[in-house]
Structures are given as structure tokens and as C-alpha cells.
Amino acid sequence: MIGWTLERVREALGAEAAGPLEGSIRGVSVDTRTMEPGALYVAIRGPRHDGHEFVRQAAERGAAAAVVSRGEAAPAGLPALTVSDTVAALGRLASAYRATLGAKVAGVTGSCGKTSTCRLIDAALSGSRRGTAARRSFNNAIGVPLTLLGAREEDAYVVCEIGTSGPGEIEPLSRLAAPDVALITLIGRAHLEKLIDVEGVRREKTRIYAGLREGGLALGPSSAPRVREDAPAGVRYETVGVERDADHRIRSVRTERTGTSFELDGERYRVPMAGEHSAVNAGFAVVAARELGADPASIAAGLEKARAPEMRFETSLVAGATIVNDAYNANPESVAAALRAFAGTCAGQRRIVVLGDMLEMGASAEAAHEEAIGLARDLAFDAIALVGPQMRAAAGRLNVRPAAAVDSVGGGGAEEIARLVRAGDAVLLKGSRGMALERVLEAWRASEPTGAGA
Q1: Domains of the chain by range and CATH?
Q2: Radius of gyration of the chain (CA)
Q3: Global pTM?
Q4: What gap in Å lies between CA 376 and CA 385, rounded to an integer?
Q5: Is residue 291 within 8 Å of residue 181, measured between CB atoms?
Q6: Could you tell me which of 82, 35, 34, 86 has the C-alpha nearest to residue 62?
Q7: Mean pLDDT to the nearest integer, 294-298
Q8: DSSP 8-state code for residue 266
Q9: What is the C-alpha to C-alpha distance for residues 124 and 121, in angstroms, rounded to an integer?
């Protein structure tokens, strides 16, 4: 974690200083609830909260200084560095710190699988070296700088997740991270409200290659051959996937509830995550980790210890039922992957699928929801439950009769769906974050079922 003097921080930010700049910082924080004493507090103005309202609290918690856009927000005694835009200042500080790091950096984007792949790269590397990886989904103009600023000077690697919700967001984050390996897990239909179509997604996602350091490696999915066209001239470009023409082809995939094994480039690997998509994510991790200096044996040992991020096909036994919580987010590709993985790993149990609306789909919403409902029907699950008007409407157009259908998990909706569940069942929760499908899990847990079922 960054430990610069306050004067060096001021120079990197080009900030005006109020108060004597003595001493140094121990890390950077944008949240007083988790801030450690000695940290530099950066006041960020967000859609719901303005960090300037918490500068005094930061001082009370032992902040070394504060970066603000309103100098008067800092109480007496707390050094203040005043800038016009605190988010931009956070990026400038991270860029300056990145330039001093000897660590190799992996940058990860994609329509789904970003966070899981970051976890897998970190696991693959951590067995033989020390490094830093993005915490949670730290993938925007605040999260990427925080990941870089959290790296230690002695780290051998840093793994950055880089996301987008609209055009023009990925390239500046990639240039900030300056990755030695930049990879795209998947080109799919996500954030179509702003990216419009898959071509728009491809154009935006491939901008991660713009920040590659000289001699760096660009990795892309073999399922999207046109990505190769967008790799800048002079960079090495290689593909990963199950397709026959992949440069690093994933073969002999075997998946079960407790994990997935596969072969890649003559070596066998296993990850404790279900589904063919987990093998693809792990394949990217293997190739990235090798590029960053790890050997196959340490990679294999590290992957065995990997853990899926929260709410990404997270499987738990709750009151006698197997609950697969994959409700962090959803787009057509991630829904299809989750449905197929669930179908393949929960055989022998009564299987219930709870599908929530996929948000931010723009003009593709109707077709995307029909595709999801159609696949769930074709996989012949024992019961389908729907949450959201778009899923309900799509089921009606396809003449699919769900076991339960509600507009939201509020107002008793979660409890209605939970009543479908019996002890011994397997339940998949899949939908966009805004649908809050985890409330179905909470309702089932709170029901104290007897096993008689509904």
C-alpha cells in the first residue's frame, strides 16, 4: 500500500495545500467506515452521499490528510489537499504510484466472469509469489485506482478488474493500470442500454488493449474471433476457449457440483467452481499466470484453493435445500451458463430455477428474456419461478407456465417463491443485482421449513 510523504502526494495531484504537510500516509481510503489510521481520505461525491460530509469523521478516525474539492470541508488540524475533481485526483495518484511499482499487472474485463477470473488469477499466482488483487468488484474509476494504491512496493503482481457501463470507460482505466497482460473473458450482451449491441460491446471491451505495456500479452475469447481485429499492431494476441481454433484450447472438461477439471496445453487443472464457463475462466487464469512467471505446478496448486466470489454460483446447504446463489448480476450469456451448469451438477434432486429480470438490456430486452425462459424450459427443470415484469411477459409470449411469478421480491414476493422449496431441493437464483434475488434465500432460511414442502 502506498506510503508516500504528503508533499509527494501533493506534487502528484497538483493540489493546493492547507496546513503543514508533514509526515506520510499509510494507504488511501474513500470510506471512513473502513479507513485505517494514517490513511489519506479522498472525499468522493456520489449519487447518494457526498464524502465531504464525512471529512470531520475521517479526522477523528486518524486520517493523515484529506483530498477535497471544497477546502472548507476539512476541520482545523487536518491537512487538506484541494483539487477540482477528487475522482480524477484519485486516478492521478494511482497512475503516479503505478509508475513506481515493479509488479506485473493483469487487467481483466469481459461481459461476465471478470471477478471470478480475477480471483482465479490471484489464486494461480499466490502459491509462488506475493501480490494484490481487486477487492470485490472494484472495476470503475474509483475501484481501479484503489486496487493499484493497495499494492505493496514488494508485490510481484497486481490483478485489476476493469468494467464499463457505457462507451469510453475502459480505455482510460486500462491506461491507468498499464497491464502486462490484458484479457477479455467474454464478449456478450451486457449494458446494451448504452453499448447498443454486441458490436458496441466488442468495441468497448477491446479498448482494454490500449493500455498494454510494450511487450505485453493480449488475451481474448476464442468464441469471439473478431476481437483479434481490434488488438493493436505490435502486441501479442492469443485466444483461450473450448473452440477448436483456440490458441490455448480447453479440453476434457469434467464438471460436478464441487468443482470443474479440464486440460490446457498438456496440463490438467481443477477449480472448486462448477460449469464449463468456470473452466474457461480458469483457462484464462492459467495463461495469464504463466505469462506473469508462475509455473504449472504452482498454478495448479493455487487454483485448487480458489474460492468463488460472493453470489457467483455460490452454493450452500440451507435448511435442507441446496441453494445456488448466482444473483450478483445477469445478462443472456451468464444466465445460459448458470442454467446449464445447474442442470449438469444437481441431477437427482428436485430442481427449481428462480429467474429475475435482466436489466440494462435496451432494445434487446424482449428477445433476451424469451431466450432465457426458452432455455430453462428446454432443460426441463422441475419448477421455474419468475421475478420481474420482463420475465413474466416473456413466459406469457412463450406459453410457459411458471410455478410462481411475482413482479418483485418485495411485498411478500420472496416468501411466495420460497414456499415452492422443499428440503432436499436444489434451487438456482439468477438475475440482475437490482432484482435482489438473495431475498428468496433469506425468506427460505427464515421459514424454518419442516421438510413437508408446499
Answers
A1: 6-85 (3.40.1390.10), 101-304 (3.40.1190.10), 314-446 (3.90.190.20)
A2: 23
A3: 0.88
A4: 10
A5: yes
A6: 35
A7: 94
A8: T
A9: 5
pLDDT tens figures, 149-187: 999 999 999 999 999 988 999 999 999 999 999 999 999
Residue type, 302: G
Tell me the residue ranges of DSSP E strands in 162-297.
181-184, 217-221, 236-241, 248-256, 259-264, 267-271
Residue 94 sits at φ, ψ, to 5 deg, of -65, -40
Cα separation, 266 vs 399, in Å, equals 47
Quote the CA–CA distance of 311 and 228 in Å, as a whole number: 32
Q: Characterize 79-93 residue by residue with b for buried, 16 or more Cβ atoms within 10 angstroms of its Cβ, and e for exposed.
A: bbbbbeebbebbbbb
Q: Report the alpha-carbon distance of residue 152 to residue 188 in Å, rounded.
A: 34
Rounded Cα–Cα distance for residues 33 and 342 (Å) = 37
Position of cell 430486452?
A: 365
pLDDT in tens, 191-218: 877 888 888 889 999 999 999 999 999 9
Quickly tell me which residue has 474509483 as its cell.
Answer: 142
